[in-house]
Amino acid sequence: MESLIIKLESLETSFNELGEQLGSPEVLSDSDLLCELSKKRAALEGTIEKFNQWKQATQDLDDSTSLLKNEADEDMRAYLSGEVERLTALLTELEDTLQIMLLPKDPNDDRDIIVEIRGSAGGDEANIFAGDLVRMYLRYAERVGWKTDVLNMNDSDQGGVSEASISIKGTDVYRVMKYESGVHRVQRVPVTESQGRIHTSTATVAVMPEVEDVEVKIDPSEIEIMTIRSGGAGGQNVNKVETAVRLFHKPTGIQIHVTKERSQHQNRELAMKMLQSRLYEMELEKQNKEITDLRRSQVGTGDRSERIRTYNFPQDRLTDHRIGQNFALSPAIEGDLETVITALVTADQKAKLEKLAEQST
User: What are the chain's domains?
Assistant: First the structure.
């Protein structure tokens, strides 16, 4: 608890300093800086509020414990004993909450997402199941107030979808939905099954944070610009002034030679624009590769044995194999996923807390 208090006191200092900065004329006159500092302070507000509750509960517990030691009246002793018990339980609850609030945050947690759903092993039944998952996620998003946009939907011949892409925007979308990535397995009797046999099929779900607009920043110290003379065709109209520009970008090795414009200044501007476009393209390719790698790591091969979750329709049971818990299938498949996702978030937080405890010992 000592290390936790040190972290909280440091955050409290930062919170107070940000409050002072927000009241200064320099910040009030700079709208961008004001917005940035306001966001930083707002992000700390919930943690500081819980810390203040913890400090007050600690003080109240000390007072009640001290009074109980010297109290002779039985009724008052019973009351103070109850207060000590209540405050001890409250402190334990607040400490658990504060530990969770101080866990390292995934930098993608507040991003919007693209969800890709594909029918995998199981033929037509896999595509029908993929369609069920599309409907489930669209209904869940509607329940929690997120905005959805179906970007792509390939219908399959026997119903369902072979592939779908959905954009989902809202508060903490990736933080909540990232646990849906992986292979989902369904066990049920298909409509086309005449003998009532249960079939097993799978669909894959990939949840990817939306890529932000690529920002290209060019450090002037990393660029070499040389000017050379441009020549006219056949030796005519030879420009004796150095108007052509050759640009070299040291970090990437990109070389750009521009002779189009008549002035050196125009050619320099054009060369910089061309460099910026090249760097933008390179960064975009890098981000697309990261997304492709993330998708591949999330869904594996789509094989039945790789499942993260099983939807057993005959038994109305949804099993999440990562946490070993069962849930009612009927409400979940209709979009009521809160109970399932809360259990996954709680399990993830518990695992992170245990890891931190191991590292501190």
Answer: 2-101 (1.20.58), 113-213+301-360 (3.30.70.1660), 220-288 (3.30.160.20)
